[in-house]
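Open question from group meeting: does this chain pack into something compact, or does most of it stay loose? Before anyone orders reagents, we agreed to write out a predicted structure and look at it together. Recording both the input and the output here so the notebook holds the full record.
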Amino acid sequence: MADVLTRIGDKWSVFVVMLLGEKDHRFNELQRSVSGISKRMLTLTLRRLERDGLIERTVFPNVPPSVLYALTPLGRSLRGPIDVLGHWAVENQTQIEAARERFDVRSPGPPSSL
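Structure tokens returned:
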């Protein structure tokens, strides 16, 4: 169970699933839409999601070949929980930032890893 939660809890995987939930995307569209992700990290994320059966990759025999990524039925079933998590994060972002500031004032220096 831990490996599945690690995959779907990964920030890049969440972004990719959210985007593919809106519509199918080509690689470059995804890279432009996911701010801060490197080409290598996007490639790794897509491969892992494909391996887990959450997305499918369709290659079109153009020159150069074009690839389209889409959610599988299993991936679409993940949209609900991810949407809830995303809405929670947006609704509580201000409170979390305020809590971090209060913590940082009380405990100078980088936060410890617990």
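Observations to bring back to the group:
The chain has a mean pLDDT of 89.
The CA atoms of residues 71 and 79 lie 10 Å apart.
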